[in-house]
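FORM 7B: Structural annotation worksheet

SECTION A. Query
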Amino acid sequence: MKLVKPNWVMHDGYPIFSIDIHPDGKRFATGGQGGDSGRVVIWNMQPVMDETAELDQNVPKMLCQLDNHLACVNCVRWSNTGLLASGGVDKLIMIWRLSGNTGGSSIFGGKAGVETWRCIATLRSHEADVLDLAWAPHSPWLASASVDNSVIVWDASKFPAIVAVLKGHTGFVKGVTWDPVGKYLASQSDDKTLRVWRTTDWAEESLISEPFEECGGTTHVLRLSWSPDGQYLVSAHAMNGGGPTAQIIERDGWTQDKDFVGHRKAVTCVRFNGNILQKKQQGASKSTQHCCVAIGSRDRSLSVWLTSLKRPLVVIHELFTHSVLDASWSPCGLRLAACSWDGSVVFFEFTQQELGQPLDPAEQSSLHERLYGKPLVQGGCTVMEAPELLNIKPPAPCQPTAHPSTVDSGPPPSTTPTTPVKGPINKQIETRTSDGKRRITPMFIPPPAESMDTSIPGTTVPTFTSQTRTKSSIVIEKRNDVVTPNVTSVNPAIMSTAATQLVPKRRDHPAARPNNVSPAKKLKVAAERAGSQLILPALKPCSSLSQQAGHYAVTVNNSQGLAHLQVFRGTDSEPTWDLYLGYSAVALAASPAVIALGLEDGSIHTFYPAKGSRPAPPFAPPAPLAKVHAVGNAVMVVSSCGDVRVWEIGNTCRMICSTSAAHLAAPGTSLLSCTLHNGMPHLAFTNARAYIYHKEMGTWLLIGDSQDPVWRWSSVSASSTPGGRSPRGPLSSLQEGLLRTAGHALPNPRLAHSAPSVVSYLEQQLLTSKAIGSTQEYVHWLMALVSFLLTQDGLEKRLRIILDDLLGPSHASASKSIWESTILGIKKHKLLSDVLTVVGGHLRWQRIYLEYTEQLSALKNQSLEKVQDL
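SECTION B. Predicted structure
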């Protein structure tokens, strides 16, 4: 191993936050702080690796300096095509491309260099600092992570197009990385979670939090990385037994039972070598494959690990005088670069004897295909795996009926020799569909007499010849309408395996309906059932739907009026089971216990994800459907007429709740969210009002109203106070989108004294948390209410009401009181003790603190005496 620390790679003494080596290995870029702006510098790699070139004055070191960012640059990343992306504190992402003009050119905001790099796009959708960037491996997509708690996926082929905005983190997103086969995108945040997103529908595949629950202080970056074989995702800043680690997350089941241990402080960055390496161990006859990863830490050290070894290959201590912030491997896999907050960079050069020989790119691609499958290529041919199959004669084709579009479902042809029936062989129909494709109607053409094999009745063999054929006399009739293709009757048992070649019979096809029945009536079943009572917008069929159900991925594709349901386990490329349903799907809801599929006719079909069997016949709630939701083994359906029903799905399916929300939906509104908690439906509408249904009370409860200026102003005021922001829970989830739905402009209620309004809001949040049984949120809002009362004048009476309820009766004559000693499973005296701790922090309330502390102590002593007497 060779170590080089060039002192000329610097940003004039300012920190360097990111480093990345160009795909051709001849350049590298650094990003960080400049004098009065953010700075991106592109350097020549030759002087770093070759001492002779470093001393040669004719060999340039700096190729270009770009000072266009308005504030510090946090990340620079090269794409496979040589584009450079830079993101910074100015909330901007800039895309740079090498211009054809070279040789001392300069651009606005830059410094004269030997190369000219021009900004071809500026991406401006983030609302706060951009901390990390990652280019997709095989597509022009760029993912960016930001302090605004979001991840944005951009399309570089048509900047500034946004592919997806991923929201789910509740803290700064500080790291983002792609799966090497492009199936997943992973992000890590200050909220102590790591989330894996599917790129097929941008839904959350997995939420991982356990390894990060003990993490204390955060780092500037949390740069995670995916192994080149796609099997492992390694995170930054995890904890194990109180010590910092880099957590290893396995793709199979997203298990987290391994980690890299040894750094004394938090891990800041992880970067896998992009090559799968192979190395022959001593005494082994074959080479073994492994991956290599570099880990940087706040302890100023860098470690390099091989997945084939239990200990690090090398650990370099005291590399810098400050934290390691970023690392990058060269395309050849033998060079490693790292940068630090102290403004310096370091390079390592390894040998193949140390790391191993990189796998050939074609072999690496082949490995990915073996592990994760190869995309289906349309028009491919079938490989004949068994040569003896060539000796088996194909059966004679079925005889067509007179009508060209009728499906033949009659009995199979007789095996006795018969004369083939001749069809209309002088006319071929060619149809031009609405999407511009040609479709030729199949027709029966009997083989010529000389090609018939009379020795095997009822069979034909193909004739291969190079003789000149006579010109066809078939007349082609062209049509510009859309027709239903002819299909052959198929055994239902093989329908799912032949889905790409066979189209199941459409129910609205002329051959599939009885006489004198109009297909239009069938398609209007759901609409006719509802009549003029539609209150909420009905769901419409779309091309595809997908959801994650534990270890299963559920997808539904609508085509030609049918719904094709497929369920995949883990990363399998083939479905575990699939089936067709006779109507287009309009809604899909899935949980690890149940799949609920809503169809266009208003019916709800339920399935077990693992077995594919049905727990019950299809449900037929009032239709059409407005929302379908599944959680655990419960399924909730909201119909457009306002009907709300919840079922428990199992060996015995039963109704949990049946009510109506028709009176809650204002004209022109639709559902914003629909969830279940403890069997109680939660609904939020686009008019910024949210409700829950309390089964015991038999009524809907209003739990949020952003159209109410007092409620809205109070909610913002309360959340801006210390400890006022609610923890993640069912109440916060339901209220999350209300303020955004109502708009950003806050109306001023012009209240003479606003404190009572805030107190009223906090009490409402407290009571709602109690009603829905959210213990964590109840404790939070109780402490928030008490803390607010302690900062106000004239509200001592309200504070005493809370303390008296928690204290309960303090004298013998009140022993028969209806006071309950617990609330939501928590002892009130325990809550009072916590509340008094908050009260004791304010000297102006020490009199109340002492009064209630003495009473609480007296009650505890009485309880001890009773126990001793027993």
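SECTION C. Observations
The chain has 14 helices and 53 strands. The longest strand covers residues 93-102.

SECTION D. Sign-off
Analyst initials: ____
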